[in-house]
Amino acid sequence: MLFPKKVKFRKWHTKRKNAKKEAKSVETRGTTVAFGSFGLKAITYGRLTSNEIEAARKVVSRYASKTGKVWVRIFPDRPFTQKPAEVKMGKGKGDPVGFVCEVKPGRVLFEIDGVEPEVALDALMKAGAKISVKTKVISRV
User: Fold this and answer.
1) Nearest CA among 106, 114, 116, 115 for reference residue 138
2) Does 123 fall in a domain?
3) pLDDT in tens, 74-97
4) Is 53 within the bounds of a domain?
5) Which residues pair with 138 in a beta bridge?
6) For the purposes of burial, counting CB atoms within 10 Å of the CB of 100, is it exposed (0-12), middle (13-18) or buried (19 or more)?
7) Tens of pLDDT, residues 5-23
8) Structural domains of the chain, count
9) Residue 50 is part of a domain; what is its CATH number?
10) Host H or E run for residue 52
11) Given pLDDT bands bounded at 50, 70 and 90, which one contains residue 25?
12) CA distances from 141 to 38, 40, 129, 138 (A)
């Protein structure tokens, strides 16, 4: 699982959760395929946990075998907290549980190169099934 080596603040502010506003905002950085030939691009907004990213990375790297190379273009640096089960309201914020990456529409999540186009397409489609945002496969061409 991915997580930062060191963080300045253990807990972050939660941020607003208005889905309509988040759906309108689009990514401005990391929107094109920069390293590989094929990429997996997010279509909807969401927060990807480090477990989701790792599961998708394993799928893509399995298809890449020895000849291919895989790039992960996102990193989970945002901590999220959770209160224990059956705890009453109040009494402060919960403890940090894990890390997430905030993904806006248009962001390229994974890239692959060095494999046949059919293999790359299949690998990225299966990786897209592992994560909680809608995705599409794009190519450099």
Assistant:
1) 106
2) yes
3) 999 999 999 999 999 999 999 999
4) yes
5) 39
6) buried
7) 999 999 999 887 787 787 7
8) 1
9) 3.90.1170.10
10) helix 50-64
11) confident
12) 9, 14, 24, 9
CB under 8 Å to 9, separation ≥6 — which residues? none
Q: What are phi and psi of 4, to 5 degrees?
A: -70, 150
Tokens of 12: 């972050």
Separation CA 60–CA 77 (nearest Å): 22
Does residue 14 sit within a domain? no
Rounded mean pLDDT of 47-68?
95
Q: Where are the alpha helices (DSSP H) in the chain?
A: 19-24, 50-64, 117-130
Is 21 part of any domain? no
Check: CB of residue 64 under 8 Å from CB of residue 70: yes
Q: What are the two backbone dihedrals, phi and then psi, of residue 79, each rounded to the nearest 5 degrees?
A: -75, 145
What's the gap between Cα 116 and its chain centre?
24
Amino acid, res. 116: E
CA distance 61 to 36: 13
pTM of the model: 0.91
Q: Which domain holds residue 54?
A: 33-83+93-139
